[in-house]
């Protein structure tokens, strides 16, 4: 082919696609596998969401509501902010893309941490922006290190709070201190994909930060229905931000970026507070059980504010990942992130967690790790 592939595109490593579960089972000769690799909600969506989606099926010949009117109204009311301060995305992933599209031009700089959510850097690279990457310090965002990298060309800073993959959150006092003298020309994006699972004491006051009541740098919050609400497959997330920023994001989005099922499903999920609370309770229980059991096996589990955790398996993580795969338990090896002895495990249902612990114990024994 004679096409010229731009350098910034040629050097991108595509997001590892992952095979459908059925294909993986066929390849490895396994059945009944369990997937604890993508930080999804293992209990699935609320039954009320499923009912709402069924009822909406007959309307699929219509374009969706491009303004997400009802969903945005419901979110605004719940969050205590104005509809004009909310932008909906096809997953919170899409809001990341809008921010980069709207504010980053070729040669502009963006700061992220490593490891953190992989999409930030990729989207910046597609846009021809320059990524400045600050390694985590003791599994946490290195706020002092981040500050040192700010230059006149910095447009955005992405902080996932809690961080993926470590599960750590920044204590609010530290975060407020950090933001208090951060340059006003940089938009700070606090990605709160896992905020629902976080200790309430660690959650920050998004209202005053987006309204910028203390005259600090602009802050954008990202949220998603993919985790606590169990709607990863529908793709719906949102950002909270000052109106001025929201207006810019609306300019770069497609008119119908949130499909109708996603709008209806997310609205039903939002309304079912009981089911949401049940998910949080189940997650807390799973966290306590898994941390205890994993530590009993001689591994080290790390404290987490999310629905997943990191485990130091005291041996090569890739080998352990493979061994567990043959037992039908899919976790994530962290070796690609530079954590060669770590796996990341999403909390499953009670039954899945028991099976995970048993498989981990067997594999650790077979590999002679502990
Ligand atoms: C930190 C973080 N941000 C954003 C996302 C993307 O979420 P969504 O499904 O809303 O695009 C993820 C998904 O795993 C994540 O871990």
Entry summary:
This protein is 40% helix and 15% strand. The chain has helices spanning 7-10, 21-28, 47-56, 69-79, 92-103, 119-126, 143-148, 172-180, 206-211, 243-252, 260-271, 273-296, 317-326, 350-367; strands at 34-35, 86-89, 109-114, 130-135, 154-160, 187-191, 219-224, 237-240, 300-301, 308-312, 329-330, 332-333, 342-346. Helix 5 (92-103) runs parallel beside helix 6, helix 12 packs parallel to helix 14 (350-367) and helix 13 (317-326) packs across helix 14.
Structural write-up:
The strands form three sheets. Strands 2-8-7-6-5-3-4 form a seven-stranded mixed sheet, with helices on both faces. Strands 9-10-13-12 form a four-stranded antiparallel sheet. Strand 9 and strand 10 (308-312) form a beta hairpin. Helices cover 40% and strands 15% of the residues. Helix 3 packs antiparallel against helix 11 (260-271) and helix 5 (92-103) packs across helix 10. It folds into two domains: 7-44 and 274-367, Aspartate Aminotransferase, domain 1 (Alpha-Beta Complex); 47-272, 3-Layer(aba) Sandwich (Aspartate Aminotransferase, domain 2). The chain contains 14 helices and 13 strands. 39% of the residues are buried. The N and C termini lie far apart (52 Å). The chain is globular, with a radius of gyration of 21 Å. With 370 residues, it is α/β, with parallel strands linked by helices. The longest helix is centred in the last third of the chain and has 24 residues, at 273-296. Bound molecules: pyridoxal-5'-phosphate. Pyridoxal-5'-phosphate binds next to helix 5.
């Amino acid at each position: 082919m004679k096409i010229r592939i731009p350098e910034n595109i040629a050097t991108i490593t595509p997001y590892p696609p992952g095979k459908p579960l059925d294909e993986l089972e066929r390849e490895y000769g396994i059945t009944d596998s369990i997937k604890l690799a993508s930080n999804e909600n293992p209990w699935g969506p609320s039954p009320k969401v499923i009912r709402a989606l069924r009822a909406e099926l007959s309307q699929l010949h219509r374009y969706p509501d491009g303004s997400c009117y009802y969903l945005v109204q419901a979110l605004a009311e719940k969050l205590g902010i104005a509809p004009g301060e909310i932008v909906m995305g096809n997953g919170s992933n899409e809001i990341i893309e809008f921010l980069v599209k709207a504010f980053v031009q070729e040669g502009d700089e963006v700061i992220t941490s490593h490891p953190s959510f992989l999409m930030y850097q990729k989207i910046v690279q597609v846009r021809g922006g320059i990524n400045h990457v600050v390694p985590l310090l003791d599994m946490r965002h290195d706020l002092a290190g981040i500050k040192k990298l700010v230059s006149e060309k910095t447009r955005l800073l992405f902080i996932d709070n809690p961080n993926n993959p470590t599960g750590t959150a920044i204590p609010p006092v530290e975060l407020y201190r950090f933001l208090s003298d951060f340059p006003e020309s940089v938009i700070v994006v606090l990605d709160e994909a896992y905020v629902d699972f976080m200790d309430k004491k660690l959650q920050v006051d998004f209202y005053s930060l987006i309204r910028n009541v203390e005259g600090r740098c602009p802050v954008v919050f990202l949220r998603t229905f993919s985790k606590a609400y169990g709607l990863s497959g529908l793709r719906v997330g949102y950002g909270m931000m000052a109106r001025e920023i929201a207006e810019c994001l609306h300019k770069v989005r497609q008119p119908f970026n949130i499909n109708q099922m996603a709008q209806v499903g997310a609205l039903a999920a939002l309304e079912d507070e009981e089911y949401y609370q049940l998910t949080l309770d189940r997650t807390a229980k799973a966290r306590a059980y898994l941390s205890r059991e994993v530590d009993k096996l001689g591994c080290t589990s790390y404290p987490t504010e999310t629905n997943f955790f990191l485990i130091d398996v005291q041996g090569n993580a890739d080998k352990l990942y493979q061994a567990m795969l043959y037992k039908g338990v899919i976790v994530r090896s962290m070796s690609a992130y530079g954590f060669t002895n770590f796996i990341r495990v999403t909390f499953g249902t009670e039954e899945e967690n028991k099976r995970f612990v048993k498989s981990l114990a067997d594999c650790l024994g077979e590999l002679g790790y502990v």
